[in-house]
Amino acid sequence: MDAKDLYLDLLAKSLTNTFFADEPDPDQESQAQYVKGFIEHYISGTAITMLPMARMRNLRHCVVDTIKNNVPGDLIETGVWRGGATIYMRAILKAYNITDKTVWVADSFEGLPEPDSELNPIEYKAFKGPVMTKVYKHFAVGLDEVKRNFAAYDLLDEQVQFLKGWFKDTLPDAPIKSLSVLRLDGDFYESTIDSLNNLYPKLSRGGYLIIDDYGEESWTECKRAVEEYRAKHGIKDELIRVDSNCYYCQRS
Asked: Could you give the count of Cα atoms lying within 13 Å of 206 in the half-sphere of its Cβ?
């Protein structure tokens, strides 16, 4: 194992807070056990990302593959929480000495948008529920906190750019020419479709689309947004399972 692999392995454990504690596993635990563990490990804990290690490995694979194959374009995550995945993106670029790509950090930094109660009733119910409201607090993390997290890892520099606001307002005019990795973690239908409409056309051939909540249907309609977009644009690239909730594909 060379120095950059050791660095990225250690950083992933730090960001996920898994040096000495196991992460909750939705594929191995009951729903009640998983939610309890999720709250303890992520919401009340010190993890900087809610991505389990399988998704961190997937993210690393996608970024490294685009580097090795000279796929043009920047990297973006839409919906960043405490910033862990985008911190990891920046770290991978630094480890591979890539200086001509930007990591875009897109979030409202005020939490999730309120879904339409008629168009997206499942999401609306979840949004108004006691767990989302009182425990998760709509996953709201301020911009200053995310910047502090970047700075704590010495990764806050000119190759990191922040897009603050609702995606429908920030993404249409974002100064992004092309993308090599597009990671969607906006949770809800509207956030997902806004991200796809504005960013997928900028994804280079050979680049990767990662959809964090594609396999989750109990509280989000992310999958419906993805399927509608793919059908409308005739996209046939295979969606590959990362874990029960996260899927990705490579643009052909």
From this structure: 12
